[in-house]
Amino acid sequence: MALIQSLCMLAIFSDALVCRQFAMKNNTTTTTTTASTSTLTSTIANSTNPLAPSRLESIKNSYSELNLLSKTNPSDFIFDFDKAVTGVSTGTGGRTVAATAANFPGLINHGIAMTIGFLGPCGINLPHTHPRATEINFSVDGDFQVGFFQENSASFVMNEIHKNQVAVFPKGAIHFEQNLNCTPATFVAAFNSEDPGVLTIGNSFFGSLPATVVGASLGGLNITTIEDIRVHLVQNPSVGIAECRQRCGL
Q: Which of 23, 51, 85, 176 keeps 20 to 30 A from 7, CA to CA?
């Protein structure tokens, strides 16, 4: 009887062990399958969207240049300003196209960026700043009035640049580019940061700050007047100064 009971207990224990091993194997398979599915989904997302945040973050977090290159494709190092669908600002005075680390993976961890300005007749790239970069601006085929203001107590600096000339705008300075011609003109702006940032002065001051703060900054201007100004804020680039518009019949 004791032998029979021992054999029965052994059988029960063996069955339980087999079931436990099967369950563990099944769980491992499920976990592996889930992980594989997640990896596959991420891979598909990155291949179909080269600007997927997870992919850009992975490139940004590379521990060396070789590691970075292993995560990129040849196409990551080419940017087409004519066909860009991101980094584009279009207004009545033309359009600007910016290539930064956010839409051009090849720039990540390389400390440079670029914007092309395609300005129409009398078009102006409205006063703005780049909080994280100094800019060097090259005139491709036009005559531009350019200027910058660096900080409180500084003097305003204004110049004209012509084809094949450049102007420099220090980091954080308020600056602008005004096409002085009655024909389209192009400039190329290069930056010493892959993420220079941009803050358009008028739109940000009147459009983003509380109306009460704006009013206080302008000697107690009432909120109704500020709201009226907000209605007339324009998208960058805009048609520029009155003298140019009159001269060109715009």
A: 23
pLDDT at 26: 55
What amino acid occupies position 13?
F
pLDDT at residue number 48: 80
- pLDDT on residue 2: 53
The answer as to CATH 2.60.120.10 being correct for domain 53-248 is yes
pLDDT at 4 over 70: no
* Residue extents of the structural domains in the chain: 53-248
For 49, 50, 58, 73, the CA distances from 63, given in Å and listed in that order, are 23, 20, 10, 18
E-only strand ranges, 18-59: none
- In angstroms, the CA 111 to CA 65 distance is 13
